[in-house]
Amino acid sequence: MLNHPGVWQGVLAALRSDASVHGPRLTDQTSITQMAADAWQALAQLPQDTPVVLAGHSMGGYVAIEMLAQARRPVAAVALVSTNAAPEPAANRTARERLLTVHEDSGHMLPLERPAELAAQLQHLLQRST
Prior knowledge:
- By secondary structure, the chain is mainly alpha-helical.
- The chain contains five helices and two strands; from the N terminus they run ααβαβαα.
- It is 48% helix and 8% strand.
């Protein structure tokens, strides 16, 4: 279950003037491995000298970690937001899926906390990578 891409809206708005932002649609894949492969494919057209900074929220953090494992090009920095580097315990997954179902059914998104602060941190990572 994926969060709605709109959760990144506030962050993307702040970054668009400083970076080329790519947010691949990762809704048809059946595994984190496939999501990471498709995310890399979405970046395939970037020139090799363009710094890549990955950002993943919640399950997107798992995708970012898998992208590092698949490493098709250098990555300047990674921002893991509300995620974990360890595999998710089964009990957590069940609770997360229930919560996302409730939010999907109600039409509400689970917003990123403090998008302006997150955007500033990502801008800092971008500046350090150039």
